[in-house]
Amino acid sequence: MPNCPRCAKSFRTANGVTFHLQQPRTACHLWEREQISFSGDPTLEDADALALRSPNWDAEQTDGHFEVPNPEDVDYDVPEIREREKPVEGTEASVPTTYAGHLCRGEQFEGAAIVYRIGDTFLRRFDMDRHSFHRQTNMYYPFANLGDWEMANFLLQSNLSMREIDNYLSLSMTKKMPLSFWTAKELRGHIEDLPKGPCWKIRIVPTHHPTTSPVELYWRDPLECIEALFNHPFYAGKMDYSPFRMFTAAGRIMRVYSEWMSSDRAWELQVKVPAGSMLCGVILSSDKTNVTNVCGGKVAHPLLISLANIRMNVRNKASSHAFLLTALMPIVEFIHPVPRIHSVLEARLFHACLDLILEPLKKAAQLGWMMADPLGNETLRQLGSICCDPDDVEAYFDACARFRLSGVSHPFWHNWPLSDPHRFLTPECLHHWHRMSWDHDVKWCRRALGAGELDFRFSLLPPITGLRQFKSGITKLKQVGGRTQRDVQRYLVVVIAGAAHPNVIAVVRALMDFRYLAQAPAITEEGCENIAVALAEFHRYKHAIIDGGLRRGDQSGLHWEIPKLELLQSVVPSIPQVGSVLQWSADTTEHAHIEVVKDPASRTNNKDYSAQICRHLDRVEKCRMFDTAVRLRGTTEVGFSSSAIECDEDRSDGEVGYAVDDADEAGAAVLNDLWAPKQSSSNYFDIAAKHVASTALSSFPLRTFMRGSTAFHLNLRPSLRRLSVDSAAEKFAIPDLRSALGDYLALHSCHGRRIRPFGRTRQSAQDTPLPFEYLQIWYKVRIQQRDYHDRTSTASTYTIHAEPPNGHWKYGRYDAAILQVDEGHDWPDSGLTGHAVVEVRLIMRPRPPRGMNVTWANHFLVYVRRLDIINVELATHLPVLKRAVRASGSYFGDVFPLDQISSFAHVVPRFGETANKRLTYMNACHASQSFYLNRYFDKDFFYATNR
User: What is the distance in angstroms between the CA of the first residue and the CA of the last residue of the chain?
Assistant: First the structure.
């Protein structure tokens, strides 16, 4: 157990020790000041201060990552810890992750990220503010009390203008409140007294060529931004501090790449830095975004920064606020007689501004935050070989053309050790893959089928609750974003199946396999090989696109010179170097533009956008930090006062530790309340676990339950509360329902709750008597599964419908599912082996006679019809299904427990070369006898069936 370094009290966790040392009412609060200082040795003082700021930096930017120079050429003022072990061998460690449900064996880099001493934590910095003296008596200073602060926070976070705030504060009802401010100006004045984060600066950037307006750069220190992220309590336990390697088995044969710290590059960099150092991967993202929506044409160019050490499942959530705005790049118009030179001058200005903004990070590398040899790189050698004056922009641009360079003479990374575009520019899903799919794959399919046929086929697809339905097709869509592009990818292969040439289908399908495989959050070495195979298959069949005239090309003729296609070649080599490519997607940063640019701009007076955006963000961040600090401080104060620490000498050490742990848990709850998503999706696994643990159940059997990796949720009230068996058979068109129920009850009485196989001969007669007469019937059930790669997380929730004919659905709505039929094969590890594809026709529960208590009445049942897999189509790699029939010609159906269903399935009719014009999405499945099992509607379903 960790102990307090002063009083030696035991605590459950290291966080408990930290909370204990931070409490002003404890004698241990001054422990740090009592430590022996490094007086008389300024080297050690500087090194200790360096260690407190943040870990070492990775100076090779891989989508914002930076690499370091060689340790022999840089003198580091870092305290000597001990002799370096052999880091390449690594240390056995329990790396907290799994791959596809199996615990991975891992090794962690030994001697990395050593803690020198207790540093300035988030709350300690809050206590060191210039107004901390006033907060000893009033935690909410400069506000009077909690209510005063909550009102101020609400007004500042709202969309109200200053005039509207003044009008609100002038109301007679509001004047009765004991507020410390009565105007919007006074309110903003109070905000200026709150603890500050990274401060904004403005600088006029000089240029060699005239511009229509001064070049104003708004920025803040990126090192302070990184330190603010690293220091924030919300990310505690959500960051990786040292490189690690994961393997799928104890034999360490198959590597698994996921987080950046699991990559080979992070391990190599850690070898080069001093013992005890820690790598911090810096992520930079820059893209222009519109500020005005309708008119005006105002554009902003934000530069976002984040920390690669934060785990991807946290960093890529917009609610985590893991991306901070570190600069607003200037957007100016140059005055030059040659229009094509304008873009060259803009690129030079962009690099000059980046060089200025990132100077603190470069200095950190030079002062010893990381060690590595400055090595030359290909781009800089090409620039050095150009014998031309860079100030002669036109001549220099022409000289750069033969190297395919942009004309920038001093790129921002030219004095950054071991930095080169081929290293710090990683593959990116949103613009490289999804946009390419829309710009190229969809156009090929449109020309192969025709716009009308393609749209009609999309309109016939059976709808999936929660996903977009393209009732009018896709060729006339406007302003197509990343979400729509991904939704189109779910159906594109199954839509063109049977209509386009097989080789054309193989091209589209191979690219789809490539995208899906490469988007996995954890990728093994075998997965890298599969990605390479998919890309090679595309190149094998791509001639069909040219032969069919589906790629028109430009005036230079037909060719495959597509930049996004060329970028696909770097995906497999990048995975071992930077980890899973999914974490570098621009989805999060694009969404962050709303928070850091668009929303602040909407609250301005439409003048001087940059300055007002920075002021607004400064106020919002102060409020957010202050709210976090006072709520955490209030939690710890209450926890420690209730436990009477230091006042009750009769308490044991363990009891004190438990009190601190309670405060730790309460602090985590506060952080989740402030920073976690406000509207998270339902976790039916947690709900089911709570129901099982509860002693007072409102309904039995439970409406939310789970089995294996699947959770089920039914509405509390059934759609039909009381319907006879014969009426249900007629309403749902199931003539053998009574005999199927009879067979189920007979097997249940003999074998109990075992997994039932599919295909048994019917034993019960059509008029067999049943121990019940009525059924409760539900029209839908929600299915939720564990994430394929991380079984501690939940995946998307899908709804299985089993509705009888009604006014909208003339033939009813019956969705498909995956049913487990072999007890030795579990979903998703076994894929379709040991499972059957079925059509769910009825969701029910027998109603026993009053007063009868029988086990079969405590289970929900389903009547399903089997869809047999005939073959797997070569071009699409999709299983071809056909309705199973008995010897009598009737459909092959049977009754099973509901929890024998493993997954939702998307079954699409085979339309042939031309879809029947009489079909609609409401009757297409009813009129079809042959189907495709769509493997692409969900990534987790794709991974499970890709075997």
Answer: 45
Count of CB atoms situated within 10 Å of the CB of 147: 13
Query: CA 591, CA 594: separation in Å to the nearest integer?
Result: 6
From residue 301, alpha-carbon distances to 211, 294, 358, 596, 598 in Å are 17, 18, 16, 11, 11
User: Measuring CA to CA, which residue among 756, 703, 773, 767 is closest to residue 863?
Assistant: 756
CA quadruple 149, 152, 155, 158: dihedral, nearest 10 = -50
* pLDDT, tens digit, 9 for 90 and up, residues 111-164: 777 665 556 677 777 777 888 888 888 888 899 898 999 999 999 888 888 889
CA distance 116 to 932: 60
DSSP secondary structure of 925-938: HHH-SEEEE-TTS-
Output phi, psi for 511, to 5 deg.
-65, -35
Question: What token pair was written down for 304?
Answer: 């976002």
The contacts of residue 803 (CB under 8 Å, 6+ apart) are: 779, 780, 809, 812, 813, 814
How far is residue 30 CA from its own chain's centroid?
Answer: 41
Contact in structure between 350 and 329 (CB atoms under 8 Å): yes
- Number of Cβ atoms within 10 Å of the Cβ of 487: 18
- Rounded to 10 degrees, the C-alpha dihedral 494/497/503/507 comes to -20
Q: With beta carbons less than 8 A apart as the criterion, state whether 840 and 816 touch.
A: yes
Give the Cα-Cα-Cα angle 468, 470, 476 (nearest 5 degrees).
125
Residue 291 backbone dihedrals phi, psi, to 5 degrees = -95, -45
Q: d(Cα 22, Cα 379) in Å, to the nearest integer?
A: 50
Q: Give dist(CA 581, CA 572) in Å, integer.
A: 9
Summarised one tens digit per residue, pLDDT across range 580-623 is 999 999 888 888 888 888 888 888 887 888 899 999 899 988 88
Measuring CA to CA, which residue among 281, 276, 309, 308 is closest to residue 112? 276
- Which residue intervals of 426-567 are DSSP H helices? 435-436, 442-449, 451-459, 482-496, 502-518, 525-541, 543-547, 563-567
What is the phi-psi region of residue 324: left when phi exceeds 0, alpha when psi lies from -120 to 50, beta otherwise? Answer: beta
Q: Does residue 552 carry a pLDDT above 80?
A: no
Find the helix packing angle between 451-459 and 442-449, rounded to 10°.
Answer: 110
Residues in the chain: 947
Instruction: Show contacts of 249-255: CB within 8 Å, 24+ apart.
Output: 249/105, 250/105, 252/105, 252/107, 254/524, 254/525, 254/526, 255/524, 255/525, 255/576
Which token pair is 175?
């004047």
- Asked if residues 718 and 778 have their Cβ atoms less than 8 Å apart, the reply is yes
- In this structure, which amino acid lies at residue 794? T
Cβ–Cβ < 8 Å for 267, 279: no
Write down the pLDDT at residue 16. 64
| Exposure letters 906-941 (e unless 16+ CB within 10 A, then b) | bbbbbbeeebeeebebbbbbeebeebbbbbbbbbbb
Weakest-pLDDT range from 192-206, 344-358, 646-660, 733-747? 646-660
Closest CA to 491 of 938, 916, 917: 938
Residue 892: C-alpha distances to residues 509, 873, 895 (Å) = 32, 24, 11
Is the confidence at residue 380, as pLDDT, over 90? no
